[in-house]
Write a structure and sequence with these properties.
With 401 residues, the chain is α+β, with helices and mostly antiparallel strands. The protein is built from seven helices and 13 strands. The strands form two sheets. Strands 1, 3, 7, 8, 9, 11, 12 and 13 form an eight-stranded antiparallel sheet that branches. The protein has a five-stranded antiparallel sheet with strand order 2-10-4-5-6, with no helix packed on it. Strand 7 and strand 8 form a beta hairpin. Helix 1 packs antiparallel against helix 5.
């Protein structure tokens, strides 16, 4: 892109020179010539016409700006006749090897509207005895020429008016007053396809490929001495080297743009994939949030249940404590009762001391009671090595009964 800007900056500098009629012939060939509206506005010079003696093709881009009269853009007067060649921009009074007053009226084939650029050519060959008149690459009039007739020599070329003699006789009726671009004269009779190719685009340089065959060149014409009001004006065509450079840079930029489009498309696809994954993530987060809310509700319910359980547990603990207190109280009462009822002589350590117990003491010793004692003693074998206290004794009593 920077290269394009540099090329454009150079181009604008160049174009400003062209609009002032400055620069080399190679650059000034991009200018057109605008002719004034008087009989004194023309270009006249005397070239060597011998290379065109047996055949030629004269072409130019013409823009007719005035109507009426007989505007002549190309005139050649020779030692033979002043009307050797005369081409008007409307077809009126066309001459080829003519005599003054015997011009051909071709206005019916010049159908181009005033103000419109058109490509006008005249081709001729002595050998073929033929001349053709072209408008925009198409033959609009053809005629035979005299056998053995060659182009007269020693004459003058005039651009912008007619000649009544060699190099004189310009008048207001035949002033051109229009615009001209790329007037070239070739030293052979060009084919219809060659002329058609040149007519496609006034900015193309097809005429330059004919090399030395292009005998009279536009870049030379534009530098000829001018009479009256004949000025250069920029045509709007770009120099070929700049066009080539710009086309190359534009092609490169187009490749970069295509690459950027592909990258953007890839990025868009990636973003769409990311967006899709993001949406999936958001859905998953919504689900997680829902589960989290449910879990919080469950936790809150669990907290309530735990508080209720703690309350019940505390109540149970209170009951247990109360129960222990009750048990302790019952133990005290039981011990007190046992102490009050037990007539065992604690000072006696004989194994017969059990006879002081209520079931025996003051009662008849029966075989059944004796057997019960034997059975109890056998059960006591299971508690050898156990410390004998009040609770153990109570256990013995429970166990033995």
């Amino acid at each position: 892109m920077n290269q394009i800007l540099c090329e454009l900056l150079s181009l604008f500098t160049l174009l400003s020179c062209l609009t002032r009629g400055e620069g080399s012939a190679e650059l000034r060939k991009l200018n057109i010539l605008k002719f004034g509206n008087t009989a004194s506005d023309y270009i006249l010079y005397k070239p060597d016409m011998s290379p065109l003696e047996s055949e030629f093709t004269a072409c130019a881009w013409i823009r007719r700006l005035k109507s009426g009269d007989k505007p002549v853009w190309f005139s050649y007067s020779s030692s033979i006749t002043s009307k050797e060649i005369q081409i008007t921009d409307d077809g009126y009074e066309f001459y080829m090897f003519g005599i003054d007053g015997s011009g051909t009226d071709l206005r019916s084939v010049y159908t181009v509207s005033p103000g419109t650029w058109f490509f006008n050519c005249l081709s001729w060959s002595s050998a073929a005895q033929t001349r053709n008149l072209y408008i925009n690459g198409r033959v609009v009039d053809a005629a035979s020429t005299e056998a053995g007739r060659n182009l007269g020599q020693g004459g003058y070329l005039l651009f912008g008016n007619e000649q009544d003699g060699r190099g004189y006789g310009m008048d207001d009726d035949n002033k051109f007053g229009g615009e001209m671009f790329k007037l070239n004269v070739f030293s052979r009779m060009l084919t219809t396809s060659e002329i058609e190719e040149m007519s496609r685009n006034m900015c193309d340089n097809f005429e330059e490929k004919y090399g030395s065959t292009r005998y009279i060149k536009w870049e030379d014409v534009i530098q000829l001495s001018r009479n009256g009001n004949v000025n250069e004006k920029y045509s709007g065509c770009l120099p070929q080297e700049y066009l080539t450079a710009l086309k190359s840079e534009l092609n490169r930029t187009q490749v970069e743009l295509n690459t950027t489009r592909e990258e953007l498309a890839s990025t868009r696809d990636s973003l769409e994939g990311t967006e899709e994954r993001l949406n999936e993530t958001l859905i998953a987060l919504d689900r997680s949030e829902t589960r989290l809310n449910e879990t919080e509700e469950e936790l809150e319910t669990s907290k309530v249940a735990r508080r209720e359980t703690e309350t019940k547990l505390n109540e149970t603990l209170e009951k247990v404590v109360n129960l222990e207190e009750t048990v302790d109280s019952l133990e005290e009462k039981l011990n007190s009762t046992l102490e009050s009822k037990c007539l065992l002589n604690t000072s006696v350590t004989s194994h017969y001391d059990f006879l002081y117990a209520p079931p025996f003491y003051g009662e008849v010793l029966t075989q059944q009671k004796l057997q019960a004692v034997r059975n109890s003693l056998e059960k006591l074998d299971l508690f050898v090595g156990v410390y004998i206290g009040e609770k153990i004794i109570e256990l013995f009593k429970f166990y033995f009964n």
